[in-house]
Amino acid sequence: MSAVCPTPLICWRAFMFFIWHVACHQFKQAKIPLLQHKPFIVVWNAPTESCRLKFKVDLDLSIFDIVANLNETLSGSNVTIFYHTHLGYYPFYSDDGTPINGGLPQNQSLAKHLSKARSDIDKFIPFKDFKGLGVIDWENWRPQWVRNWGSKDIYRNKSKELIRRLHPQWSDRKVEKEAKEEFEMAGLNFMNTTLLLAENRRPNGIWGFYLYPDCYNYGYKQHPQKYTGECPNIEHVRNDHLMWLWKESTALYPSIYLDYELKSTSNTVKFVHYRVKEAMRIASIARTDHMLPVYVYSRPFYAHTFHVLSEIDLVHTIGESAALGAAGVVLWGSSEYARSRKNCLTVKKYIDGPLGHYVINVTSAAKLCSKALCKKNGKCVRKSLDNGAFLHLNPRYFKIRSSSSSQGPRFFVSGYLSNEDIFVMKQKFTCQCYHGWIGIYCEMPESSILFVDMMTNVTSHATFQHTAPFSYILTCLWALILISSSFALKPAKLPLIGRKPFIAAWNAPFDLCTTKYNISVNLEMFHISGSPRASRRGQNVTIFYANRLGHYPFYTEEGLPVNGGLPQNCSLETHLQKADKDIKFYIPSENFSGLAIIDWEYWRPQWLRNWQKKDIYRRKSRDLISKGYINVTSQQIEYLAQARFERSAMAFMKRTIQLGIQTRPHGLWGYYLYPDCHNYNLLDNNYTGSCPVLESLRNDELFWLWNSSTALFPSIAIKKSHADSVSNLYFAQFRVLESLRIASMTSMDYDLPTFVYTRLGYRDEALSFLSTKDLIHTIGESAALGAAGFVIWGDVNLTSSRHNCSKVKSFLSHRLGQYITNVTRAAEVCSEFLCQSNGRCVRKDWQAPYYLHLSPESYRIEHSEEEGFVVTGWHSEQELSELQEKFACHCYEGYDGDKCDALKQMDKPDSSITRPSASWCLVLVMFVYILNFVF
């Protein structure tokens, strides 16, 4: 018996590893909040103590959950901000060009600076257990040479003068190169060592530099009508070069100060959105264990004015920051706030009115969402960062009331969180778990995974002595993944056409046979069709090749760049402008409700998947970094090249498909060949077809793509060299299974529909058409596993001669047409009988050799030139009984029950489950643990 037992154990451990790294980690974990159970805080950072002491105006900030220092000063136990005059000997030039502390970082003694900085930290933060925000505000120069523009150009000029004095014979180019290197190294050392000193002196503080990261999206000043808010791509790259700073920081402090010209405009939220989004991006790459907390600096007043922010701009700043996942907002103010009694009363009126009410609204909503969705072990973040949802209390169920008591807070929240509120939260937000917690709802301690591994290790040493073959482990892993999906099966999306559960789509240029050779064929066995020719428009199946949608960047086979060659070399905005015109040209109807497929195959958006011929995209990306930067190591080049390529590729693919969905929202949009599971090793001995685990993990990394798509279009094209073999079956089977797995992962309330792409012929011999057995291995297998349909693709070679056209017509009029009619009609029969036409039939056992085929004893399929294929006959009771034994229902959205005969209760919040919860994992662990000893 012991020789058999290792297999489930090893599979189980592989499965738990998979669950831990995939299902339970949609986001990198967040740092535990500064204040317990307060996922989003608002911090007061203004010197307003004079309002109380001098003018007897009391600003009671604590009632709004605003964290204030003692006497509301700029330094204290909760927040300390170090300006350039308060921390060491910071070198800079005054406004009149006078050098202070040497002027340049390379002109000042670092040791002398650190010695004074140590004393300054002890002076301004006397508490050694300081656990607040430590903010260093050094704004005179930036550590990157290229970013010292405008008034900061003095630091470049003075650095060059310094080198010129030392080397008067050098060329200007060599002087600038040396000056740049010296300045950047000195700037890095000043900032990094100061940060390290602060963290060593007050290790519990949350340390970072004010205004870092910045993304310089100030284009609203020059082009307010065309302003998108996006950070320039070059600024993303420059921020990536500051990895040395992010790795030493323990928090980020970006700024979203608003100019008055932005007041209550649509550009405000664009400006804030992308600045906070960039900070969240940097926060996610700085560390390996958790995201850095982001505290966004804002002002209660518009910059350089004493005009309070409008109520909508409170939403645009504080609300947007909370919804994107920031840890809090710091409200900074100058001494102007307390300069006079009038000013103090203005501040008090604003706090007691719109500001205070909004702060208590958004912080309370963040706490309630954390409790309702994330078990208080995580915070709520928008499912889609661009969806415009906010963490606000529902005014139908909540009120912010004032207290008549002189004791306690002046305002309090009354009300309750309704089922409706929870349901809406689950629709629009997801959980980002705190460090130490995992699961879709942050319901499981991370230590549970260690427990799982410990238990499986103990039992393996105690009872088992044999090892299972690795190929079997992969197969078993797949079985467990598929079993896991049954714990929280999402409904299927309603069919594209009527109640047809499995549709056939035609995407080949057979129209050329009609125009060139007068050879036509009846295509009525296909529910929708479209020719891939560029001259055809307004079709139900529209495929966008690389040259038909925007300015897609790629390299030709000769290595020549088209549209810049690399996604980071091509303007995304210019591409989208042309893509918008292309979509409207090829799909002129605004009511388009067919299939829209983007076929971009030159490069893949993941760096590691650009192998063989696609390696040119990695080489060219490295070249681009090497030419743009001096004195970078090969490791730095690789990191920067990969980061820049992947970010640009993601933006190209994501923004393009979003544009398509926005322009033609009723169509089903996706990318051809996505997902792919790269199971092309058919020549291996004992080929199982299973997708390599690494490729499944890489597919999970493309969550941004699946979440942006409305359909999936994997390919199951097979080769003639494996014709009629079981390898073709395994190849297609696991590719469809992988797509169905991905289809259930998105934030949609239903599985994305999967339409598999196949061909008339084999990949290596286009005019050798698929055998009946291989039609079953591909189309039949897809139907039985639960795909929404298939697309048959062909190119112009099929129609290049009268002979070829005649062969295609014969295949369509006999073998292919016969089989398509068979499987699509059988899928309808099963849906009608088992699922009341409210769902599609899916195999109960995914490996079983059962197919949705009409019984030849009960049905006849006949063909005529005029009518196409006609089905006659009726099923027997025995045949229906066999269907019930072999197939189960996957209900469409809105329906429930084993037979899909009940309406689903859409208002129940707990019914919206997007992926298997981690909690049931422990139950299975114990179950396996017990079985180990039983056997």
UniProtKB/TrEMBL annotation:
Q: Where is each EGF-like domain found?
A: 368-443, 829-901
The GO terms this record gives for MF are: hyalurononglucosaminidase activity
Report the InterPro entries cross-referenced here: Aldolase_TIM (IPR013785), EGF (IPR000742), GH (IPR017853), Hyaluronidase (IPR018155)
As given in the record, the signal peptide range reads 1-24
| SUPFAM superfamilies associated with the record | (Trans)glycosidases (SSF51445)
Q: Which GO terms describe its biological process?
A: carbohydrate metabolic process; hyaluronan catabolic process
Q: Which GO terms describe its cellular component?
A: cytoplasmic vesicle; extracellular region
* First-listed, main subcellular location of the protein, grouped into a coarse class: secreted
What's the source species for this entry?
Atractosteus spatula (Alligator gar)
Q: How does it assemble?
A: Monomer.
**What reaction is this protein's catalytic activity?**
Random hydrolysis of (1->4)-linkages between N-acetyl-beta-D-glucosamine and D-glucuronate residues in hyaluronate
Name-wise, this protein is Hyaluronidase
Q: Which PANTHER family does the record match to this protein?
A: HYALURONIDASE (PTHR11769)
List locations, semicolon-separated: Secreted
Which residues span the membrane? none
What protein family does this chain belong to?
A: Belongs to the glycosyl hydrolase 56 family.
Cite the EC number. 3.2.1.35
Key words, A-Z: Disulfide bond, Glycosidase, Hydrolase, Secreted, Signal
